Amino acid sequence: MADSDGANGGLTRATAAGRPGARASIAVAVVAAWAAAALVSRRVGLWPAMGTAALALGALSLALDRRLRGAVRASATAAVAGVLAGIAMAAACWLIYPLLARFEPWAVGDKLGLDTAFAALSPARAALLLPLVIAGEEMAWREVVQGRLAAWLGPAPAVVAGAALYAAATGLSGSPVLALTALAGGLLWSALRQLTGDLTAPILCHLVWAVLVLFLRPVLP
């Protein structure tokens, strides 16, 4: 994500110069708010805490930085890549989680606890809210946070650093399985954002994976 918007009628040079610092502040706020929501989720549940945080952070990011409104361009190539990546990620979960549960019994209780938390929302409400929650989450993490990291570190290191921050903040929920999933998903979604140049692929990948693994065919019975 570039720091400069270039010449734009009505913008003073001072205003343009102040924007990178403002975007950095937004990125730091995203990480802090996500970590706080993860901690709160231990008491109130994942949907109320982290779902609300995703919606709020996505909306605030759009409101505070108008450039983000072009982050989803819905190209056909990116859409196909996102859907296929989501199916592949779900297939990997169906393969890996049973193996993890076999050798690490704690993972079963952790995963079943996550299923209970996600099932707290009715299917109708989940169908309405899930796309909005995921879009807000991807806007905040893959656009705002990853964009700032890319400006500081470069594109490839930003993918790894962004996923690590995402997993660390999510892990404050107290769920190792959720933290590991956030790390793996964060790496994939960040890579898709970097490779395709917008949020279409990561949003669709995240959404397809969530629908398949959380609702249609949970990875552990």
Write a structural description.
With 221 residues, this protein is mainly alpha-helical. It has one domain. The protein contains eight helices and no strands. It has helices at residues 13-44, 46-64, 76-103, 106-118, 123-153, 155-171, 176-196, 200-216. Helix 6 (155-171) packs antiparallel against helix 7. It is globular and about 50 Å long. The chain starts with 12 loop residues before the first helix and ends in a 5-residue tail after the last helix.
Index terms:
221 residues; mainly alpha; 8 helices; 0% strand; disordered N terminus
In short:
The chain has 221 residues and is mainly α. Helices cover 81% and strands 0% of the residues. The protein has one domain (13-216).
What are the secondary-structure elements, in order, as H or E?
Answer: HHHHHHHH
Main pleated sheet: none
**Which range best describes the helical content: under 10%, 10-25%, 25-40%, 40-55%, 55-70% or over 70%?**
over 70%
Rg (CA only): 18 Å
- Count the domains: 1
Strand content: under 5%
Stretches with pLDDT under 50, minimum 5 residues:
1-18
